[in-house]
Amino acid sequence: MTVTTPDSAVDLFKTLDELDVPRGYRAEILREAEITVSPPPIGKHQRNVKDLDRQIVPHLPEGYDTEVHLEIRMHHILKSTMPDLFVAPEPVLDVEDYFVSPEDVILAAEVVSRSNAANDRVEKLGIYAAAAIPLYLLIDPLKASTTIYSTPEDGEYTESVTAPFGKSVEIPEPFGFELDTSRFRTY
């Protein structure tokens, strides 16, 4: 196991900031002292993200919005992710930078990709829980299932509900609605 010192953490974030990744690719810090670069998602993946966005927007808490391009930078745990979608207060999203801090993020959502399924199912599950993001929504087209994780404590989510595509999933407060998974596409 490599121990990251504050100086090397600064260097890692600086390297991340200076990377010239091809259009559509995502660069993230998911593992200690390592930058992960993922290829652009396929069309079905993006349709799932769009369907999620359409469903969640009418249930957003007052003053919150969805975001699909900004990074969540978690300096305190030396991680950085670019979720497929996340929800935060509008003023937090109105930044002159390309990242936000996790303190204001109330939901992070990922659609599993064929090329990096473990990143969404395992790595990001642990990262979002460690960052105390209240809700993590995982849409898994490979397993045709949707899982909502909630109540992060001591770096782990203590509650989760999984449903197959076609069955609804209750998205808890502050959203409070049934997510229709029947429109999600498998691949």
From TrEMBL:
Q: Which domain of life is it from?
A: Bacteria
What keywords were assigned to this record? Endonuclease, Hydrolase, Nuclease
Has keyword Hydrolase?
yes
Protein name per UniProt? Uma2 family endonuclease
| Species lineage | Bacteria, Bacillati, Actinomycetota, Actinomycetes, Streptosporangiales
One Pfam short name: Uma2
Q: Which species is this UniProt entry from?
A: Nocardiopsis endophytica
Q: Which residues form the Putative restriction endonuclease domain?
A: 16-181
Instruction: Tell whether Metal-binding is among the UniProt keywords.
Output: no
Q: Which InterPro entries does this entry report, sorted A to Z?
A: Nuclease_put_TT1808 (IPR012296), Restrct_endonuc-II-like (IPR011335), Uma2 (IPR008538)
GO terms for molecular function, please? endonuclease activity
